Amino acid sequence: MTMGVDPAELGDEDLIRELRRLHDTRTETLFHGSDDALERHTSRTQELEGEYLKRFPDRQVDPGRLREGARLRNA
User: What is the pLDDT of residue 2?
Assistant: First the structure.
C-alpha cells in the first residue's frame, strides 16, 4: 500500500528531495518512533529507493564504496 504520492509520479527533483528527507529522519524514527512508524518509514524508503534505482540504473558509483575500495582504506 502506497501512502503519499506514488514514487513513479514524482519528478526527479521531488524524488531525490523525498529520499533525502527520509534519510534525514531515519535515526529519529528508529530511536523514537512507534513500531508502525518505523515499519512505514522502512516501506516508504524502499518504495522511493526502488524508483530511484529504476530511473538511474547507471548511477555513478564511488570506487571507495566498493569492497576493493574498503579494503584499500583498511590496509
Answer: 58
